[in-house]
Write a structure and sequence with these properties.
single chain, 182 residues, mainly beta, 4-stranded antiparallel β-sheet, 12 strands
């Protein structure tokens, strides 16, 4: 698997499990400026594999905001072959700092054999949130920690936003969210 970065694995049973990560590719990006050579752009495409019995096969997440989910799958946590959670850091989060709805962590739950995106409350306008670690109390309750990046300043067309990073703690309990920001 060249250029693949496998980040997480979780087995729901001895014969059923999931691996998540990303594939890195490079594409022509920025043209030559001031005599400097052109720069390539790194693209991360989320990748997911499902183990069923005896082999791993590639699986897909559902489209997010109408587009394929590019980015990284950061955590998979299975409780059984039919019950699990998947956390991702998708590219839609960082590309639109004025659209707060696209700046929350991406979270999916396995429902009837398909990954379904779970709505997460908007952390705050111009904040990109990332959950780096998750601790489950039960299949329906977890705590997550990570960071929240606050974009301040003027729009990119006028010089750009400036990031400020702060700690983030979230608690999910049977559909109810509590967000603790610092």
């Amino acid at each position: 698997l060249p250029d693949y970065d496998l980040r997480t694995i979780s087995m729901g049973s001895p014969t059923d499990g999931w691996i998540g990560g990303d594939q890195v590719t490079y594409a022509p990006g920025y043209p030559s400026i001031g005599g400097k050579p052109p720069q390539n752009v790194m693209i991360t495409d989320s990748k997911l594999w499902h183990f069923t019995g005896s082999q791993w096969t590639e699986a897909r997440l559902p489209n997010v905001a109408g587009a394929p989910p590019n980015g990284q799958i950061t955590k998979v946590n299975m409780f059984s072959a039919t019950d699990g959670w998947l956390f991702a850091a998708l590219d839609t989060q960082s590309s639109v700092p004025d659209n707060a709805a696209q700046m929350t962590p991406d979270l999916f739950r396995l429902e009837q054999g398909r990954w379904v995106q779970v709505p997460i409350p908007v952390i705050q306008a111009r904040r990109f949130a990332n959950m780096g670690q998750v601790a489950f109390v039960s299949p329906d309750e977890f705590w997550g920690v990570g960071d929240s990046t606050w974009w301040t300043g003027i729009p990119e067309s006028s010089g750009g936003y400036q990031p400020t990073v702060t700690p983030l703690i979230v608690h999910y309990d049977r559909g109810a969210w509590k967000v603790i920001e610092y």
